[in-house]
Automatic annotation (TrEMBL):
Keywords: Signal. SMART domains: YceI. InterPro entries: Lipid/polyisoprenoid-bd_YceI (IPR007372), TTHA0802/YceI-like_sf (IPR036761). It holds the Pfam family YceI. It comes from Reichenbachiella agariperforans. This is Polyisoprenoid-binding protein YceI. The keyword Signal applies. It comes from the Bacteria.
Amino acid sequence: MKKVNILTALVAVIALSAFTIKASIDWKISDDFSIKFTSEDPTGVFTKMDGDVSFDPDDLQSSRFDVKVDVSSINTGRGMQNKHAVSDKWFDADNYPTIDFTSKSFAKTATGYEVTGTLQIHGVAKEFTMPFTFENEVFSSSFTINRLDFKVGTSKGMSAKVPEELSIDITVPVTRK
């Protein structure tokens, strides 16, 4: 009986070793990241971001992004503009403290990759596809976003002075965990 169990275990080990279990590579977000937004006015950056990043160019199906940007970390270079940005008339940081992105799928493109997932800003969640490159342990992405799609700055007054479309440039250096 022991010989049968040992033989069965040996066959199972050999059979399982024929299959390799692939797992994405986990990455730690460097403090040197950059999230810039530009328009005619305002321009600025977000200075706090955290999240889980797993990415392997050879295993896109196992890759995932789950990232949060702290809304109160906005810096336009103007103190009063920063106060307005986090107020209930714009991002409403008290009720919606983070901008969240959670990936659903990844694809290879002619110029790099794209990730599709749920982007949530100001309590509004939408499917969003973001192009990006990954070279020398740095993720880079540039895209535009319409702030009104996420109900940011919809109140009368100053919102008319801010363009609906904002250019976003993201650079995220990472290191292996």
